[in-house]
Amino acid sequence: RCGTAIVIAVGGAPEALDAHPGTFNVLLAKKKGFIKMAMEHGTHLVPVFSFGENEVYDQVENPRGTWLRWTQERLQSIMGVSLPLFHARGIFQYSFGLLPYRRPIHTVVGRPIRVEKNMKPTAEELDAVHQLYMEELSNLFEEHKGNYGVDKDTHLNFI
Question: Under the cellular component aspect of Gene Ontology, which terms does the record hold (predicted)?
Fold first, then answer.
């Protein structure tokens, strides 16, 4: 139908484990299923980025390779949801709790990427559209980061 849109959180639950304040990690480097789906249906892809999402909660440090991260990833594979250890503010005080900090989130929307219908895309065709999507998302970030207090030397990190 015309006038409808589908939103896919490409990074999904695993990306939540990398959502630390001041970071801009996007779990996208190997995610190509949404590209294949768009190609099979001839659906345009629209890059979208939200500035401030990672600032509404603090998360316990969990670098890859640590015991905590291994446990989180294992539980995620069993339960299907990620379990970041986070905290923010309380109802009557601001020092600790599970409510998000009162911080703005600004969502910017890029230009649609035209995707031609292709029921059986080759690996090379998938890679080309995937690369284009990552470039457009990166361009969107670079274009708007200065408006939302992100340092000029900070860039998206595709993992």
Answer: endoplasmic reticulum membrane
Tens-place pLDDT, residues 57-109: 999 999 999 999 999 999 999 999 999 999 999 998 888 999 999 999 999 99
| Helical H segments across 42-112, by residue range | 67-79
> For the chain, what is the radius of gyration of the CA atoms?
18
How far is 54 from 37, CA to CA, in rounded Å?
28
Q: Is the pLDDT of residue 6 over 90?
A: no
Q: Most distant CA pair in the chain: distance in Å?
A: 56
Distance CA 142, CA 137 (A): 9
Q: In the 8-state DSSP scheme, what is residue 11?
A: T
What is the 3-class SS of 104-118, one letter each residue? CCEEEECCCECCCCC
Report domain extents, the chain.
Answer: 24-51+105-159, 57-102
Cα 31 from Cα 13, distance rounded (Å) = 13
